[in-house]
Design goal:
single chain; alpha/beta; TIM Barrel; 6-stranded parallel beta sheet; 4-stranded antiparallel beta sheet; globular; Amidohydro-rel; carboxy-lyase activity; Metal_Hydrolase; hydrolase activity
């Protein structure tokens, strides 16, 4: 079965130097980072300098036959807008890079406006990080709604990760109702396997809302490969909103500290619980349509030395 595979959720950075809720995230060595008070294996250990570059990812994509990827962002990695703008210019047919607004800082509408004027076609908001110990920035705040209005007018896509369960569902419902033509991709498969995750999935019943599965392999890490529970969750989500509303995402590179990049999607290909048409939709066709991706490269299969 030939599919031009699209990864709807991946990350790139040159260096991590960030702070979330007063806790530091900083690049160390051998692929490790200081992460909120402990040392974690952030990257595979052979990425010794901590640089998670486009070129390394492209090598992984080429080997795994992934035609294109959406590069999202997260506050734990720090703002990577400058680097991702360079990547977008250098590899326009392989990446769709999101600019990220730091809504924890004042005057963030102006920041969003600058990113849109610069030319970013998508904006990322890690909404779960907006619920801080002593402060919460609501998605329905006047400044945030100004951003969404501008994005709808300019046809800028919103990439967003929500807090677990139904915490931010009412806010998102209000945003979607107010700006029905705003294209929205909700990440982490609705924080699947957490209580009330289906409520996030049901947001995709709105015409311009999609769900992407970035992070599904870490959410099912205790079960591990071939992630049958993840496949069953995909089936359940499809029963709620239709397979045409769901997209595959890897959450590269953090997830490949446990599995290979190809393994982050081939459990879908190997599953006998999904039809060939469902696999085509989930692994590429839905994302190509939603993100308006054209001229996707076709990549050959390269045998590895274990075969």
């Amino acid at each position: 079965m030939k599919i031009k595979i699209i990864d709807a959720h991946a990350h790139l950075w040159l260096k991590q130097d960030a702070e979330v809720n007063g806790l530091k995230i900083q690049t160390l060595d051998n692929g490790r980072s200081l992460f909120m008070g402990e040392v974690r294996q952030m990257l595979p250990p052979f990425m010794i300098d901590g640089c998670n570059t486009a070129e390394i990812f492209l090598s992984n994509m080429d080997y795994a036959q992934v035609s294109s990827a959406v590069i999202t962002q997260e506050y734990i990695d720090g703002l990577q807008n400058d680097y991702l703008w360079e990547v977008q210019q250098k590899y326009p047919n392989r990446f769709l890079c999101c600019g990220m607004v730091d809504a924890r800082q004042p005057d963030y509408f102006e920041h969003a406006k600058q990113l849109i004027e610069q030319g970013f076609k998508a904006i990322k908001i890690p909404a779960e990080r907006l619920i801080e110990p002593h402060k919460q920035t609501f998605l329905t705040s006047s400044e945030m709604m100004k951003i969404f209005k501008l994005m709808e007018e300019k046809d800028i896509l919103l990439s967003i990760d929500l807090a677990e369960g139904d915490t931010q569902i009412a806010e998102m419902g209000e945003v979607i109702s107010e700006y029905p033509d705003l294209r929205i991709a909700i990440g982490h498969f609705g924080m699947v396997n957490r209580p009330n995750w289906q409520k996030q999935i049901k947001l995709a019943r709105y015409k311009n809302v999609m769900i992407e599965s970035g992070g599904i392999t870490w959410l099912f890490n205790d079960e591990f490969y071939p992630f049958k529970g993840a496949v069953l969750a995909i089936k359940e989500a499809a029963s709620l909103v239709g397979m045409e509303k769901l997209m595959w995402g890897s959450d590269y590179p953090r997830t490949i500290t446990a599995i290979t990049y190809r393994m982050s999607y081939d459990f879908i290909l190997k599953s006998d619980l999904l039809s060939e048409n469902e696999k085509r939709l989930f692994l590429g066709e839905n994302a190509a349509r939603f993100y308006n991706l054209k001229d996707l490269v076709e990549l050959p299969y390269i045998k590895n030395m274990s075969e």
